[in-house]
Amino acid sequence: MADEPVIETEIHDRINEALAGRRSQRSFVEQLHDGWAATVAGLDDLAAMVAAADRTAQQEGADAEVRKGFGELRTRPGALRKRAGDVGRQVDAAVARVRRETVNIGVIGSTKVGKSTLLRTITNLPDTVVPSTEFQPTTASASSIYHTSGAPRATLLLHTWESFRDEYLAPLHELAKLGPAPRDVDEFRRHRYPAAGSAEAAGAGADDYLRKLDAAHRSLASYERLLLGGERSISVGFAELRPYVAYPRKDDGDPVGVQPYHAVRSVRIEQPFLAGAATRLGLIDLPGAGEAGLDIDRQFLRQVKNEIDLLLMVKRAVPTSAAYLAEDSYTRTLADSARGGVPLVDYYKVVVNHDRVTDTAGKFFEKTFQSVRETQDERGIEVLGADVTDRGEVLGRLLNPLLRHLAARLAEMDRAVVGEALRGAAEVAGEISAYATAALKRARELEMLLPDQEDEFRTLAEKLRNNLAVDLAGLVQRYDAETASGTADGSLTEAIGTAVGEARAWVRDGLGYGDRAAWLEEVRGQFVHGELETKQDEYYRAKTEITTIFGRIDPSLDEAVQRLWDEVAGTLRARLTAEVVPQGPNALAELLATAESRRARILAGALTSLCDLKEDYGSVVLRVTQPIIRGIHWDQRPAPAADPPSWTPPPRKAAPPVQQAKPGGWVIRPDGSRVRSQGSVVPVAPAGNGPIESLYDELCAVVDRVITALETALKDEARLMTRTLAAAADRFFNTAIRTNRNERDYENLCRPFMRTIWPDHFTGGAARLTADLSRLAEQARRTGELTTAVTGLSTGLRTGH
Description:
With 801 residues, the protein is of the alpha/beta class. Helices cover 59% and strands 8% of the residues.
């Protein structure tokens, strides 16, 4: 055989460039995904509130005009939700595409056309991994095969019971007209299926599906543990892979009752490909039209949309399929519905397999190739031809043209998918916005038809504001009383005491070495080597330790602020109910979001200031402790503390003023210098009074004075914290209660919750409907705002931003 052709380096480079461009679109597509999800959630919430208001109107015997007012609003979400589902699948496909780091070719075809052979030729895989047979379908699970330069491996993604039931059993039940699939494994085990061809079967059309259900039922014991196990993926060696990806073959002695492929959702195989094909290539093995009951339209359309960049149909040139058949048209229709904005000529290709074993003269190949090309030419679809068993032909006549095409068109195909998803999302978002506008308008119209309870509501809202004034004033007065008495904040006081105790203990324990003797032993050698350097190191070590100890005070500020927040939230919750002011440490932040959405701007401003208290107050460590701790410096002395130090040097033992040194030995003078003895009497520094001992005493005294200064300053800070909390409570009270015309804030905030806050006043039919309509109007406004997250992206794309 001639030398195998190779894929040009230029093709690989251009594909890699296109994949890099694909990554650059991820941020935009993620924004689209999140905005779309929020929009659909808003539609669902709005539809639920329309239904609730409609039920209230019917149950409470509202006027006929009111009861009729929900007609179109009630029915319209169904069609919108269906369209939203289609758009959501397109958005999901765009997300999957920009996240994909490979260029994937999906390979599809009827049974016995050479699809598995083609995959084996490209991937060098054995038939235990990509099985085929001349007589029956073999592919039981969809496989994704990726080129790797590393070790080959196979990973199985397993079904849960729920996904197996919904994706495998349920379609077969529907097609066999058997009703709902079993709810759980035990029910499936007990289920009795009619035999294919029996009187109980729903006609001959159900037989293929019944045979599959019977096989799944009889072999349950071989895969049940995989469905119910905790692991959702497992690795399997190539030699053991076949039962997970293929149907059993009686001729090969396969046990019919062992069919673990039922539990396999998909297979990922990594394998070095054919030389020259090893770009960032993935091959997706798609079950063909011969797979009875797999229902490609529903089960595999999503996989085709989300996982492949190009769909390749394999057709075999033999007498039985020489003409363009209905299944070929079916596959092209599948491609057309899955291309997601990509032109069909870019997305879909056909390869005719020249089977030289049965068609030595090439007569059937020429006939089939001509028939297929004439039909595909109607849509401009490229038709290729190759013997799928021939490595050279596969690379030169098939992969080379396909990869060249992808290198040239992949970037534009990616943009087409993203653009199509955005256009669809923007269009349906516009329709959802129009629906929300109509719902808001209708809710306000219906409110006008109800008995007027507005005066009562406004009176109650004003009374609630006045009651909150009394409650919050009491809270402010308590904090003011603590300030007047000089009470220090409890959380900060406790943290200060702990820090002071730890710091003094560190000094007493030999500056962290256990005792004085241990410190001297540890530091002496370094000190003899370099006195100044040792002094600097020890001062820095002490400064670092004291900084660390007192740095633990800052969290106590969070506790003090959180306590005020909790007290304010509890005061508000007592009047507004937990529905408006939820439980938990983030209660005020959640109330702030509600106030902003309800246009309670004055209250929102008061809550914003209160929620920013931690940031406004700042860090005690930076503001108070650090300036004092800077006094721990080797050439800087802090001012003496007003109080006597808590640390005093230990008593020193008396020592003779002179010592006799041996000739040639080292002696230390009183000033700390060292000299060689010549055998005479030399004045020597008394034991315990040398420079290193002096350094220890000095450092302990300096650190002790700093600790005392920190304790004094921080106690003042604890009292200041009480004053600050009192001031914050007072500021919130004045803004939230005493600001002019703030009663409108409480009306806006409470209107959707009137039934919860005042159940005795608003539990009647008209009152319930009024509350429901108020909630409906609020959700309609909010849903309309959510749609702008999608339509804004569309505007940005059109303007090039």
